[in-house]
Amino acid sequence: MVKQNNNNTEEQPKEDKPVNGLMEKIQQLGQTNVPQLSQDSKIHCLTIVGQIEGHLQLPPQNKTTKYEHLIPQIVAIEQNPKIEGVLVILNTVGGDVEAGLAISEMLASLSKPTVSLVLGGGHSIGVPIAVSCDYSYIAETATMTIHPIRLTGLVIGVPQTFEYLDKMQERVVKFVTKHSKITEDDFKDLMFAKGNLTRDIGTNVIGQDAVISGLIDGVGGVGDAMTKLNQLIDANNTEKNEGIIQ
Length: 246
Description:
By secondary structure, the chain is of the alpha/beta class. The chain is built from eight helices and eight strands; from the N terminus they run αββαβαβαββααβαβα. The N and C termini lie far apart (82 Å).
């Protein structure tokens, strides 16, 4: 008798975990390339778009950049030896002040070369993020809005509230003036200027105006930013090699 082999040798199709993981990262982080998987390039692109979400969750219809997503990415970038430079792309309306300052401080403290590029807009708390990098660019048609710190929701009109606002605003002013060529007086003049914004206090600076004021280093696009970043990476590698030889 010949026994029939009833074992089904045909393998069942397995779920493609890398693809699903990639799709999840696209949905959560808005990008296809995360620091741990950046094997094809020495440059990591970090995008900051929409509204910067802080301690409060914004409505689902809002386009947001969540700071709890960016902070682990920046830490991973610092730890990954294959990443030699970071390109930060901004098109943001601003958002949470403390979250924006936290991102700015982390970018400024990276040991690797960084270049920022403002496309469309880098408004409000997006200004400190734009100037936090080693070199900053702005597109010719891009704009940056500089205005005083504001609070939404219930505000208790007591001296402590105004003192808190003043100190928070001073943190922003000090960071921007420390990481750019604009003076504190000039930045405050832009911040408190009247008549430049409809029904508001502040200033819109566009393209070349941001460079003239000393806020941004140069006018340019993606090509200019990539060229500058590669130059900074080469200079950084040369400095490291010279240190090893010595």
